[in-house]
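Whiteboard transcription, Tuesday session. T.W. wrote the structure tokens on the left side:
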């Protein structure tokens, strides 16, 4: 049983819906339980049994989740996102024959200082909220270290499984540089994603450019206002959330990531998959596990180095950019890691 708060746009939602549909049906009988509403779903989940509980929050969905676990007696319950993992940790002692696995979505200690938390929950008040989970999946080694060091999770409970490449669109053709450089960033419009510092950097870029920002969020007005203040507003295009992300990315020269912390940056991975190289800050999280300097992009330490790499008009081979990530994160590799974990936790 896979449990999510919703199927709205997000990395955890994309990965869990993908895994639930694609694990080996000869070995497992997956079921996807969504606390929220079908009308909010942006992912195709036609290849798995889905139950929508039609509740606004995990807290109000808990009685229904308890009833489902009692009725279906799953051998494993897999949850994702910290407040859902904490809720499942609370339930774990009452279901001794079920193994509970959480999947964490970010470097949690680095996110605690964010001014705005997307979803407040009383579960956040519980100390050591993951202690009753049988295993915790982390998307990156930084995340695993954070859980061991700052949340006292036993090391043998931690399993690092990166996010999978869920589809392989066509790789973009090799394209010569044009006079106007084309940059893109994809992600929700929040402070942690670093859009404002990217604008600062671009304001110092001495070549014509177009910068496309794809995503929705509360920081939209502040981003556009800053672009006006910096005199680069006419070079900015904002695109709200879209299912045509790959088409947008493939039309650009570079993917820019300004994040201060990441779990495992799916949009950055998708950029490499279509053959568009990236420039990203060496932030806590999984970015450094994707970006290989001079192979699929550049990993930088500060804004000065970021600008320096922007001015490096290196010619990239899209096929090579793509190959660098497909070898590590293709769906067969990642699905096998999930399947092995599920089998081991049942048998051991």
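and on the right, the sequence the group agreed on:
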């Amino acid at each position: 049983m896979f449990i999510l708060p919703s199927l709205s746009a997000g990395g955890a939602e994309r990965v869990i819906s993908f895994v639930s549909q694609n694990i080996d049906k000869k070995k497992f009988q997956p079921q996807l339980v969504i606390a929220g509403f079908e009308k909010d779903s942006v992912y195709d989940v036609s290849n798995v049994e889905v139950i929508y509980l039609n509740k606004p929050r995990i807290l109000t969905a808990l009685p229904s989740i308890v009833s489902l676990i009692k009725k279906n007696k799953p051998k494993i319950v897999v949850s994702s996102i910290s407040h859902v993992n904490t809720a499942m940790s609370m339930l774990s002692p009452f279901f001794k024959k079920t193994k509970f696995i959480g999947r964490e979505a970010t470097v949690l200690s680095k996110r605690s200082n964010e001014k705005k938390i997307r979803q407040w929950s009383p579960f956040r008040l519980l100390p050591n909220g993951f202690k009753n989970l049988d295993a915790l999946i982390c998307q990156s080694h930084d995340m695993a270290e954070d859980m061991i060091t700052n949340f006292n999770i036993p090391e043998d409970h931690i399993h690092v499984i990166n996010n999978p490449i869920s589809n392989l669109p066509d790789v973009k053709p090799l394209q010569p540089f044009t006079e106007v450089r084309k940059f893109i960033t994809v992600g929700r419009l929040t402070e942690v994603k670093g859009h404002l510092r990217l604008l600062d950097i671009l304001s110092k870029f001495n070549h014509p450019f177009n910068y496309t920002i794809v995503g929705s969020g509360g920081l939209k007005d502040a981003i556009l206002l800053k672009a006006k203040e910096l005199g680069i507003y006419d070079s900015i295009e904002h695109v709200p959330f879209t299912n045509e992300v790959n088409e947008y990315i493939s039309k650009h020269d570079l993917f820019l990531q300004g994040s201060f912390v990441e779990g495992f940056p799916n949009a950055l991975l998708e950029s490499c998959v279509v053959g568009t190289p990236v420039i990203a800050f060496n932030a806590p999280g999984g970015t450094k596990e994707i970006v290989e300097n001079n192979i699929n992009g550049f990993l930088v330490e500060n804004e000065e180095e970021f600008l320096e790499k922007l001015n490096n008009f290196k010619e990239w081979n899209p096929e090579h950019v793509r190959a660098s990530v497909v070898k590590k994160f293709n769906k067969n590799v990642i699905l096998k890691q999930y399947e092995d974990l599920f089998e081991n936790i049942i048998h051991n």
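Someone added at the bottom: Confidence is low (pLDDT under 50) at residues 113-127.
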